[in-house]
Task: inverse folding
């Protein structure tokens, strides 16, 4: 099986460019279906989840060409085929095809989406919202079927500011008849990116960046060129890697405006962070013009008391596992509380295998007593962000760590091994055979 072999204990040093955002790219790719024209999506990350989304679009009849930094997609000939297979069952984000398919074809047939095992993640919010817009759902032989005689605007108040539900409503509403208002909408930057793409295609959306979105439906949308923003979770991963290992790194194009909660926690743990804008910045140690985030890691991270995940702009649940890994080597005791997903602590057992002192106080709260040094071990990733956390733990550990389950990590990181190697980490990709 594929594995990362990591020899830890080396401070990080150097510069790495942050890839395009996974969580922004996937709904934008789904939204290209709405135009029936050519769209070019630039800075699209080369990850398996994007490959799955491209496969879905091709199976629907879209013509897709890979360009130097992304994809050119012509959806003129797309037709409403059933959606099944690994591209659906292996990727939770395929759920955003619901709104796009219903808006374009007035029907959808898809297997229930899969992805990482980090919680139940029910889709009731999606279905109830779309039902208010005129969709009837049924279950046929384990396939979710949705049909409408025509989408119409609606007043929708979400019980929870779900990112996926907000995306599906947006995708449906831009071609619906009349006005749709979403109250308690998700405010994550990925929602803003989707709104920016849709407005560039001719959609009428008000309240972007707030929790109240108003969408006036249009008859048609047109093609557009769009650049996917940098990935705030990838940037946060490398920020925490430097915080755990020490050293000095520059995260080129890191979207620091979207990372305030993550930067604040890294600084609590002892990191020094400096924002570099599009100017020649002597302070970050790089002579060329740059933009991004310069990070100086501490000799050893400090405990922080309490970390609590929250919806944006709070501390992101996608960064919780990485925070847990860094705090496992911190000086002192910390409490990590998970408020979004009920199964985000799967990484605790492999961290314990590496010598971490972590115990669950409840199903949503973990107590971490930092140890002076983690120890290398053979551990297996069980989901995307937990896998990245184990890589970070390996960078901090004494001796060799072997991280298997790398397919999970490849769902969100273009080449985490190469990026970390460019920062001086002793990490190689290879194979591991269980004995």
Result:
């Amino acid at each position: 099986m594929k594995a990362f072999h990591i020899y830890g204990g080396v401070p990080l040093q150097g510069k790495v460019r942050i890839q395009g955002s996974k969580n922004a790219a996937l709904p934008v790719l789904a939204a290209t279906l709405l135009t029936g024209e050519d769209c070019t999506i630039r800075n699209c990350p080369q990850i398996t989840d994007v490959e799955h989304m491209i496969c879905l679009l091709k199976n629907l009849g879209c013509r897709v060409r890979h360009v130097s930094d992304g994809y050119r997609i012509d959806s003129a000939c797309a037709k409403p085929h059933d959606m099944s297979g690994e591209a659906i069952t292996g990727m939770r984000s395929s759920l955003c095809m619901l709104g796009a398919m219903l808006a374009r074809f007035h029907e959808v047939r898809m297997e229930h989406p899969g992805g990482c095992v980090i919680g139940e993640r029910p889709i009731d919010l999606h279905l109830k919202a779309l039902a208010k817009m005129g969709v009837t759902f049924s279950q046929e032989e384990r396939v979710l079927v949705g049909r409408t005689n025509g989408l119409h605007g609606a007043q929708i108040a979400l019980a929870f500011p779900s990112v996926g539900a907000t995306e599906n409503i947006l995708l449906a509403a831009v071609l619906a008849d009349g006005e749709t208002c979403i109250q308690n909408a998700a405010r994550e930057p990925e929602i803003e990116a989707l709104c920016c793409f849709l407005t560039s295609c001719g959609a009428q959306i008000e309240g972007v960046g707030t929790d109240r979105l108003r969408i006036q439906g249009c008859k048609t949308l047109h093609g557009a060129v769009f650049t996917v923003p940098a990935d705030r979770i990838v940037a946060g991963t490398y920020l925490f890697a430097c915080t755990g290992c020490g050293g000095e790194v520059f995260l080129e194009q890191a979207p620091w405006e979207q990372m305030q909660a993550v930067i604040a926690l890294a600084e609590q743990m002892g990191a020094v962070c400096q924002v570099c804008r599009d100017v020649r910045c002597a302070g970050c140690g790089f002579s060329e013009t740059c933009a991004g985030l310069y990070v100086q890691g501490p000799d050893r991270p400090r405990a922080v008391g309490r970390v609590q995940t929250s919806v944006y702009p709070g501390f992101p649940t996608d960064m919780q596992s990485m925070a847990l890994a860094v705090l496992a080597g911190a000086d002192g005791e910390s409490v990590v509380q998970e408020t979004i997903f009920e199964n985000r602590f799967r990484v605790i057992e492999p961290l314990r295998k590496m010598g971490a002192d972590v115990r669950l106080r409840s199903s949503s709260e973990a107590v971490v007593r930092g140890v002076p040094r983690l120890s290398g071990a053979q551990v297996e990733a069980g989901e995307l962000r937990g896998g990245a956390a184990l890589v970070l733990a390996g960078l901090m550990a004494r001796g060799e760590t072997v991280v298997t389950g790398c397919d999970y990590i490849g769902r969100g990181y273009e080449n985490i091994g190469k990026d970390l190697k460019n920062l001086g980490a002793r990490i190689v990709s290879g194979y591991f055979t269980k004995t």
